[in-house]
Design a protein that fits this description.
It contains eight helices and no strands. It has helices spanning about 1-20, 25-35, 45-55, 60-65, 80-95, 100-115, 120-135, 135-140. About 30% of the residues are buried.
């Protein structure tokens, strides 16, 4: 499931970029992006959800991360903006996806599509958003278990 969802995120990032830059209709963008895809390798429902729900909730999504930016949202590179919006959508509305997965997937997308160091910027912004939206999940993260003591009679005492 994770590979097909990962591919859906990747395709959604590209489609959201197109939407931001070209301003095309979402249905047309979706049709174009799905034409050449092997849909057995992509979570098509998740792609559709991301592509349509991110623009539909844009003001709400932007409100979560814009205060953390070091510049105006319009000045953020369009690829980085698409990745941030997708990541914030997942943090805010897909509580079934662990926050660490959301951030790690966004970092991978930034390394693939973004500028040289954009993954660090994406990581910092989404980490800040996660602290606001997923505080309980972050606090409840499992702590590392201490190393087990050897029960062998040869263990040092």
């Amino acid at each position: 499931m994770s590979q097909i969802r990962q591919k859906a995120r990747r395709l959604a990032t590209q489609a959201l970029y197109t939407w931001q830059v070209a301003g095309q209709d979402l249905v047309d963008i979706e049709r174009e992006y799905l034409l050449d895809q092997d849909m057995s390798k992509i979570d098509g429902d998740y792609f559709h959800e991301l592509l349509h729900n991110v623009p539909a909730r844009l003001d709400e999504i932007d409100a979560h991360f814009v205060p953390l930016l070091d510049r105006r949202v319009e000045e953020v590179d369009a690829v980085e903006r698409a990745i941030l919006r997708l990541g914030v959508y997942e943090l805010a509305f897909r509580l079934d996806v662990p926050y660490r997965v959301v951030i790690n997937e966004a970092i991978k997308l930034a390394k693939t599509f973004g500028a040289d160091q954009s993954h660090k910027y994406i990581n910092g912004i989404l980490d800040g958003v996660a602290k606001n939206l997923r505080a309980a999940e972050i606090k409840a993260k499992p702590k590392p278990k201490p190393a087990a003591k050897s029960s062998s009679k040869y263990a040092k005492k």
